[in-house]
Amino acid sequence: MENYINEEEAMNFHIAVIPGDGIGPEIVTQAKKVLDKVGEVYGHTFEYEELLMGGCSIDAYGEPLTDETLERAKKSDSVLLGAVGGNVGQSNWYQLPPDKRPEAGLLKIRKGLGLFCNLRPAVLFDELSGACPLKSELTEGGFDFVVTRELTGGLYFGERFTKEVDGQLQATDTLTYNETEIRRIAKWAFDIAMKRNKKVCSVDKANVLDSSRLWRKVVKEVSADYPEVEFSDMLVDNCAMQLVRDPKQFDVILTENMFGDILSDEASMVTGSIGMLSSASLGEGTLGLYEPSHGSAPDIAGKNKANPIATILSAAMMLKYSFNLLKESDAIENAVKASASGQQVHVVCKEETQMVLIAVIDHGIGMREEDIKKVTEPFYMVDKSRSRKAGGAGLGLALCTEIVKLHHARMKIKSRLGEGTTV
Fold this sequence. Notes:
By secondary structure, this protein is α/β, with parallel strands linked by helices. It contains 14 helices and 16 strands. The protein has a ten-stranded mixed β-sheet, with helices on both faces. A four-stranded antiparallel β-sheet has the order 14-13-16-15, with helices on one face. Strands 6-7 form a two-stranded antiparallel ribbon. Helix 10 (about 310-320) runs antiparallel to helix 11. Mean pLDDT is about 85; it is low at about 340-365 and about 380-395.
């Protein structure tokens, strides 16, 4: 079976790879294998430059991220990160000042690359719904939405101080946003929605906060440039409730820094497993930082126990949002779903008067229409005697054979029930 290579569409990408600490090197290695397979199938070339950040950089250079490493990351097309950090109570890294600890490297690279948009997908695969803490009737069929969080403004970056007023201590934190900060994150949210289900829900506290009233005004202005996208506003307290009441209603949630911090953690919880969740941090251009939502898990490092799914899905996000390779990104996501279900191809064969009807569900890379036609053409409009001679499921098994070849796998019949064949 030929791959999907189109020489006019074949592209070359330079990826800065930061394995990091703990399980980071293990999970990044698996993500690179997936990217290499995508390159083989679709004709792209991915070149990797390995960089140090986190504890391993402290061991090598005495700091979590060197200026030279940051400059090399800036010159890449995108950055793929494993994880940074170690055991807080045990590692010597945490005897250092806070700005010299492993996680400081992550803050430095986000600032250095100008990343202000954080994406946290929340995906519940139907096959893993048992891990979700919500009632099954709320999650049947799974759900898939993404929290788009402003990353560099708001309460976390405003002026703060504590002073004595009238004989007692008084603390002040300042929440500030300007139009530019709001507009640029809103444009990202709407662009992302255009590659998904074209729905944006902007979350604020406009009934109380001036910053939220400005947020709502600017986001509404941006929405006018995206007439295809269904747009709505929602107060943050209502959104927190709706996430556990009906998470399937959301596609893209857009919100400011602190609200996004809280809501994205809540979204992670309702999926039942943070180990399956990817994330991305984006800026003005196409350069982004892609990483799993989980940590470095030093307790299982080197034991071949780490789940690489979140990192693999982060690589899929990189293909979609930095490289605009939509079908390639979908191929990875579909393969993950296939892994979760434990089933790649299911064939249903049913005889009618003059036709053998076949439904083939392929949970992986799939087949092009022209390839399917080549395989199925000899079986179309056959009479009953021929269909019996072909074994009834001849067309389905022929399709399966070609699909399994495409997956570079071996075909094994798992079951042949009256309603179909599973391979």
